[in-house]
Each structure stands twice: as C-alpha cells, then as structure tokens.
C-alpha cells in the first residue's frame, strides 16, 4: 500500500505556474520521479474542469474526491477566493485529507493576508 | 509614488483585517491616521477629484483581494458563496461590520437586473475625512467600492462597483451579463 501524495494549489489563471506544489513519496519508491511528476501535474490540471463544475453545486469548500484515474483519487478544496487545492492520493482517506486541507487553508489565509504577497504568485 | 502607495495600502488592509478578525481589535485612531495618510498621499499623486476616487478604488481592490478569505473564515458558519445574492449578503454583512455596523439596505435596480445598490453610512471611513466645499462630490467611499469589487470578482462574480453620494453613501454594483444569466 503506497502512501504517495501530490498536492498542488492552482490560482485563477492557468498560464502562470501553480501557486504551490508539493509531493511526498514513500521511501521505497526509487524510480524516476520525473515521469510521475509530469503525470501528476497533468492529472491535477485535467481534474480542474470537474472541480469547476462541482464548485457551483455545493457551498462547501471541501469537495469530495472529484475524479479517479486508474488508482489515483483526486480530491479538491476550493477557497472563498476561488483558489483550488488539489490532491492526488493513492489511499482513500477522506478525513485525513479534509483535515489536511483545512490546515493548509488556515495557513494560506495567514499567508495571503500579508500585504506584500501578490495574489496568484508562486509560494 | 507607486511603492509608497503599496505600503500604505498594505498597512491599511492589515489593520482592517485585524479589526475584522475576532481576535484582535485595532485602535480607531490608528486606523484613522492610516486612512487619512492614504488619502493625502493619493491626493498628492493626482490632479482631479475623479482620479482620486480611481486611485482609492485601486487600493481598495488590493485590500479586498487579500481580505476575502480571511473574512469568510472568521465569520462562523460562513461558506463559500455560490449564488450572487449570497455574495452580496456577505459583503453587506461581514465586510461592513468590519467598519462598524451592517449596511442599511441592499436593493436591486428596477430596470436592470445586473445592478444592485448598497446604501448605508460608513462610520469609519467618512467620519474623519473632512471635505472642502469645492470638492463636495468627493467621497472616500471609493475605497470601499474597491474592496467590494475585489471581493465580488474573486468570488467568481465579476462586477464593477462605483460610489455615489446621496445623503448616505451608495455603492452601485453592476455585474457582468454572464453572472446574472
């Protein structure tokens, strides 16, 4: 059971680089990470359409897993300012992911309140 | 000119967020001082009164962009708004509370479905700014208009907000066509 995660924060305009990107792979996976990284980015962005569609359906910020690709689940969290947090994960773990999203959201708010932070710029 | 404006705008919205957050209260005099400095600084950059409002609105927009998430989070039980009316109510309630009390009225124009008005006094903004007689059309509500515009636009409802001055301050909010349809 692998516990690899890939987390990305996407802003409003896709032409700029993503606001934040982080991945964690389990220790035993020694394969080339580059392949996976491209694939992960591709999956995350492909899921954005679904996220946008689901965004308007519910008031919640946390959207349940919105997509599934082979073995990866894609979960999303949309903030009030329409910043999208996307997470690719292998294990189905909704509560943990939701707590993680909430923590990241709190951190993001504190970070974004900084007046010198340009919205949508890379962190 | 630009960089000083940035710094003032930044310090100001840090204050405002501090004032709206449940934990910290900011002293009124500090806010008044900062805001008056802001207005004076904008005045030194422009020649016309109308431009002054434009500059204030631009600054307000920056504040609004940063403050939106913080406001929603500090408001207990508030969710991300998916309807236009919800977003407007958030503006009317939460944001105006940061400046004092809730706004008085939210109305929709009769002839145009895209236009809304928010009417209310702005205790903090206008109290400490004295307007000379020749500039009687001038209104610091341009700053608030900028904040509202940024909050609405970043919530996914693009709009243009202008400030007018009757007896009370009136903010005219005009949404783009796609939002109402």
UniProtKB/TrEMBL annotation, chain A:
<dbReference type="GO" id="GO:0006888">
    <property type="term" value="P:endoplasmic reticulum to Golgi vesicle-mediated transport"/>
</dbReference>
<dbReference type="InterPro" id="IPR011012">
    <property type="entry name" value="Longin-like_dom_sf"/>
</dbReference>
<dbReference type="GO" id="GO:0001222">
    <property type="term" value="F:transcription corepressor binding"/>
</dbReference>
<dbReference type="GO" id="GO:0005783">
    <property type="term" value="C:endoplasmic reticulum"/>
</dbReference>
<keyword id="KW-0963">Cytoplasm</keyword>
<dbReference type="GO" id="GO:0140416">
    <property type="term" value="F:transcription regulator inhibitor activity"/>
</dbReference>
<protein>
    <submittedName>
        <fullName>Trafficking protein particle complex subunit 2B</fullName>
    </submittedName>
</protein>
<keyword id="KW-0931">ER-Golgi transport</keyword>
<dbReference type="GO" id="GO:0010628">
    <property type="term" value="P:positive regulation of gene expression"/>
</dbReference>
<dbReference type="GO" id="GO:0005654">
    <property type="term" value="C:nucleoplasm"/>
</dbReference>
<keyword id="KW-0813">Transport</keyword>
<dbReference type="GO" id="GO:0005793">
    <property type="term" value="C:endoplasmic reticulum-Golgi intermediate compartment"/>
</dbReference>
<dbReference type="GO" id="GO:0048471">
    <property type="term" value="C:perinuclear region of cytoplasm"/>
</dbReference>
<dbReference type="Pfam" id="PF04628">
    <property type="entry name" value="Sedlin_N"/>
</dbReference>
<comment type="similarity">
    <text>Belongs to the TRAPP small subunits family. Sedlin subfamily.</text>
</comment>
<dbReference type="GO" id="GO:0005640">
    <property type="term" value="C:nuclear outer membrane"/>
</dbReference>
<dbReference type="InterPro" id="IPR006722">
    <property type="entry name" value="Sedlin"/>
</dbReference>
From TrEMBL, chain B:
<dbReference type="GO" id="GO:1990071">
    <property type="term" value="C:TRAPPII protein complex"/>
</dbReference>
<comment type="similarity">
    <text>Belongs to the TRAPP small subunits family. BET3 subfamily.</text>
</comment>
<dbReference type="GO" id="GO:1990070">
    <property type="term" value="C:TRAPPI protein complex"/>
</dbReference>
<keyword id="KW-0256">Endoplasmic reticulum</keyword>
<comment type="function">
    <text>May play a role in vesicular transport from endoplasmic reticulum to Golgi.</text>
</comment>
<dbReference type="GO" id="GO:0005783">
    <property type="term" value="C:endoplasmic reticulum"/>
</dbReference>
<comment type="subunit">
    <text>Component of the multisubunit TRAPP (transport protein particle) complex, which includes at least TRAPPC2, TRAPPC2L, TRAPPC3, TRAPPC3L, TRAPPC4, TRAPPC5, TRAPPC8, TRAPPC9, TRAPPC10, TRAPPC11 and TRAPPC12.</text>
</comment>
<dbReference type="InterPro" id="IPR007194">
    <property type="entry name" value="TRAPP_component"/>
</dbReference>
<dbReference type="GO" id="GO:1990072">
    <property type="term" value="C:TRAPPIII protein complex"/>
</dbReference>
<dbReference type="InterPro" id="IPR016696">
    <property type="entry name" value="TRAPP-I_su5"/>
</dbReference>
<keyword id="KW-0931">ER-Golgi transport</keyword>
<dbReference type="Pfam" id="PF04051">
    <property type="entry name" value="TRAPP"/>
</dbReference>
<protein>
    <recommendedName>
        <fullName>Trafficking protein particle complex subunit 5</fullName>
    </recommendedName>
</protein>
<dbReference type="GO" id="GO:0006888">
    <property type="term" value="P:endoplasmic reticulum to Golgi vesicle-mediated transport"/>
</dbReference>
<keyword id="KW-0333">Golgi apparatus</keyword>
<dbReference type="InterPro" id="IPR024096">
    <property type="entry name" value="NO_sig/Golgi_transp_ligand-bd"/>
</dbReference>
<comment type="subunit">
    <text>Part of the multisubunit TRAPP (transport protein particle) complex.</text>
</comment>
<keyword id="KW-0813">Transport</keyword>
């Amino acid at each position: 059971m692998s516990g690899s995660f890939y987390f990305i924060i996407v802003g409003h305009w896709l032409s700029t680089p993503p606001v934040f990107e982080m991945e964690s792979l389990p220790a035993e996976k020694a394969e080339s990470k580059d392949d996976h990284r491209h694939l992960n980015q591709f999956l995350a962005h492909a899921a954005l359409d679904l996220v946008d569609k689901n965004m308007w359906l519910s008031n919640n910020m946390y959207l349940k897993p919105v997509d599934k690709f082979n073995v990866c689940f894609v979960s999303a969290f949309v903030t009030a300012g329409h910043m999208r947090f996307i997470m690719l994960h292998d294990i189905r773990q909704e509560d943990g992911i939701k707590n993680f999203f909430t923590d990241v959201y709190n951190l993001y708010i504190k970070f974004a309140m900084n007046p010198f932070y340009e919205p949508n710029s890379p962190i | 000119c630009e960089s000083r404006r940035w710094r003032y705008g930044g310090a100001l919205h840090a204050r405002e967020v501090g004032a709206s957050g449940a934990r910290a209260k900011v002293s009124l005099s500090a806010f008044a001082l900062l805001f008056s400095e802001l207005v004076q600084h904008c005045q030194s950059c422009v020649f016309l009164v109308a431009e002054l409002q434009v500059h204030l609105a631009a600054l307000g927009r920056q504040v609004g962009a940063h403050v939106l998430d913080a406001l929603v989070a500090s408001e207990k039980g508030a969710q991300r708004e998916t309807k236009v009316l919800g977003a407007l109510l958030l503006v009317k309630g939460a944001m105006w509370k940061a400046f004092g009390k809730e706004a008085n009225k939210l109305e929709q124009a009769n002839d145009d479905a895209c236009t809304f008005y928010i009417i209310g006094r702005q205790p903090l903004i206008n109290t400490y700014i004295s307007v000379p007689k020749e500039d009687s059309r001038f209104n610091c509500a341009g700053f608030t208009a900028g904040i509202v515009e940024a909050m609405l636009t970043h919530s996914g409802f693009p709009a243009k907000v202008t400030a007018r001055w009757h007896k009370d301050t009136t903010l005219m909010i005009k949404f783009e066509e796609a939002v109402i349809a």
